[in-house]
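lol so apparently i was supposed to do this last week
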Amino acid sequence: MISITLKSDDSVKYFTIEQIKKHNKKEDFWTIFRDKVYDLTDFWKTHPGGDIILEGAGKDMTFLFDDIGHSHDAEILLKQYYIGEIEKPRK
Ligand code: HEM
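anyway here it is w/ protoporphyrin IX containing FE bound
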C-alpha cells in the first residue's frame, strides 16, 4: 500500500479560546503565544525561570514572556511544543 502524507492547511488544528482556557493545569497546560497554541505540559518543569511560567496556563502569555525579556533561543525552543492555531471567528 502506498501512503502519502500531504502537507496542506487541512493538517493545521484550530482551537477556540474557550477550549484553550480549559487546559489551565500543571498536568494539562496549554498556552497562547504570538497567536499560536502550545502544549507546555512537558516543558514547564524544566523552565529556567521556574514555576512562575504556570501563570500563563490556559491563557495568552505573550505579554508575560516579553515583559520578562526572554532570549530569541527561548522562542525557538517553543516550536517543538506547537499544537495549532487560534480559531478566528468566520466573517
Ligand atoms: C512562552 C513560554 C516560555 C518559554 C519557552 C520560556 C523559556 C525561558 C528560557 C529559555 C529562559 C532562560 C533565559 C532565556 O533564554 O531568555 C527563561 C527564563 C526566565 N523566564 Fe521564561 N519562558 C516562558 C514563559 C515565561 C513566563 C510566562 C514567565 C513569567 C511569568 C517567565 C519567566 C522567566 C524568568 C523570570 C526567567 C529568568 C530566570 C533567571 O534568569 O533566573 N517565562 N524562560
